[in-house]
Amino acid sequence: MEQFPEPLVPGQALDARARARFGARGSSEARRLAGLDIVAVALTWVDISGITRTKTVPVERLEHAAAWGVGMSPVFDAYLLDDSIVPGPHVGGPVGDLRLHPDLDRLVPMAALPGWAHAPAFRYDQEGAAHPLDTRALLRRLTDRLADDGWTVKAAFEIEWAVSRGGGEEFSPAVRGPAYGMTRITELAGYLRNVLTALKETGVTVMQLHPEYAAGQYEVSVAAEDPLGAADTAVLVRETIRAVSMAHGLAATFSPKVEPDSVGNGAHVHLSLWRSSGDAPVNAMAGGDGPCEMSSPGEAFAAGILHRLPALLAIGAPSVASYLRLVPSHWAGAFACWGPENREAALRVVTGAEGERPTAANLEVKCLDAAANPYLVLAALLAAGHEGLGGGRRLPDPVHVDPATLPEEERVARGAVRLPASLGEAVAAFEADDVLRAALGDAVADTVSTVRRGEIELLDGATPEEITAATRWRH
After folding, report:
1. Is the pLDDT of residue 278 over 90?
2. Which of 42, 141, 182, 470 has the fewest CB atoms lying closer than 10 Å?
3. Of 98, 132, 166, which residue constitutes the final position of a domain?
């Protein structure tokens, strides 16, 4: 089967030949979907506020959409979480258009939405060039940059969500069982069975599902894949969970803070760096002479991420509500430190069980949440890791305890500084980071700052209860 051509080389445009190939592939896929009783395809993208937006086409229009795209205003990248618009230097007004082109390699029927298929979209301008605010294209470019240096990355998101009964604005936990308790599985066994079945039928490989700590909270982990696939899967998993929840008369929220006095929902990212070697790739996070048996490149990649965590929070913890979640001693990773299997460190090194480490060892970035655009998160993490590789960075000494329990002078000596405690602090760190700006590009970096500052102004002076209420059902 012909692959969707790479539209991500800077300056590359869609020419007539490429459009013809796209259209032919779209026609073939439309016939296949019609045979499965699919009537429409949702083309999705994720905006800078982390909200999945869509335009849909009847299946018989898929050929045209593949070749010529679907028109959309660029203004959505300047939307705040309440759908108000904050004008910036690159987007924010009523003028302009771009085109959504479905990535047909990721086109799948949605088991949770009978009659519907899903395709994440690449975004182009009207001349056929990649749109500068297309974060899917950005992620592919940065993945390719690592590949040019001989590296690949495997990635996956852990998805946490909380389930509520009733259709009101308040949150009413759908289960009463204890944290991590089997009772919570029993209470919603049919619902969870349908979540797992729908994910499997949609092509998602689930590794595990379990009750979590907060009221009504669950977590699902999926198999690692290439970064673009991992971000696509994160979107697909969330929309599948949302649809199954609604079919059961429930409401799912992925917000970083569901109730002001409880822990929130994270969206931890797992990453491992691999080098091609002979017949099989080698995991740089295992089998080396560095900390936790990392190789030197693996350590440098990890150190690059750790070094830039304060700035990365403007992308990975992008809401005012994120900082109600990101507090010490809540397993949220509120300190910029690392440690083997330390769930209070912002960067946890997952060593894996003895005998499985060559394939299982990976990094878990714990300070991130689901208000983030998953494409932008992974792009920024790859940029930070790439800089670490190029600079030969090294990790400081590991932290083996909850860093909040250490005397302040010892934390400072170990470099285990408190991460930004507000979105404003994170934005300031991001705006001072030239490496991330260069990797993301001016259009993305400026729009991130504009949207973040817009949300800060929107919720200025709000109480934790008001912030939680404003964000609870937006993600």
Report:
1. no
2. 182
3. 132
Kindly state whether residues 64 and 203 are assigned to the same domain: no
Q: Is 119:107 a contact under the CB 8 Å cutoff?
A: yes
Structural domain includes residue 11:
no
Residue 450 φ/ψ, nearest 5 degrees:
-65, -45
The chain-wide mean pLDDT, for the chain, equals 94
The domain in which residue 96 lies consists of 18-132
What average pLDDT does range 31-44 have in this prediction?
A: 98
Q: Dihedrals φ, ψ of 50, to 5°? A: 85, 15
- With 50 as the cut, is the pLDDT of residue 4 above it? no
Are 408 and 432 members of one domain? yes
Given 132, 154, 182, the domain boundary residue is 132
7 domain-assigned: no
For residue range 361-417, what is the model confidence (pLDDT) as tens digits? 999 999 999 999 999 999 999 999 999 999 999 999 999 999 999 999 888 888 899
User: Which pair of structure tokens corresponds to residue 21?
Assistant: 């190939």
User: CA 440, CA 141: separation in Å to the nearest integer?
Assistant: 10
Would you say the pTM of this structure is higher than 0.85? yes
Asked if residues 297 and 189 have their Cβ atoms less than 8 Å apart, the reply is no
Question: 419 with 467, same domain?
Answer: yes
Whether residues 414 and 285 share a domain: the answer is: yes
Asked whether residue 126 falls in the same domain as residue 147, the answer is: no
Residue 236 and residue 116 share a domain: no
Distances, alpha carbon 177 to alpha carbons 114, 216, 263, in Å: 32, 8, 16
Q: Are 314 and 374 in contact (CB under 8 A)?
A: no
Distance (Å, whole) CA 290 – CA 354: 17
In this predicted structure, the answer to whether residue 157 has a pLDDT above a threshold of 80 is yes
pLDDT band at 12 (very low <50, low <70, confident <90, very high): low
* pLDDT at 357 > cutoff 70: yes
Q: Is the dihedral of CA 328, 158, 315, 264 positive or negative?
A: negative
Same domain, 345 and 235: yes
Count of structural domains, the chain: 2
Question: How many CA atoms within 13 Å lie on the side-chain side of 41?
Answer: 31
- Predicted confidence at residue 96, as pLDDT, reads 85
Residue 12 lies in a domain: no
Percent of the chain with pLDDT over 90: 89
Of 52, 63, 57, whose CA–CA distance to 25 is shortest?
Answer: 63
- 307 and 450 housed in the same domain: yes
Two structure tokens written together for 261? 């006095």
**Buried/exposed code over 305-319 (b: 16+ C-beta within 10 A; e: otherwise):** bbbbbbbbbbbbbbb
Whether residue 307 has pLDDT greater than 70: yes
With contact defined as beta carbons under 8 Å apart, do 120 and 5 qualify?
no
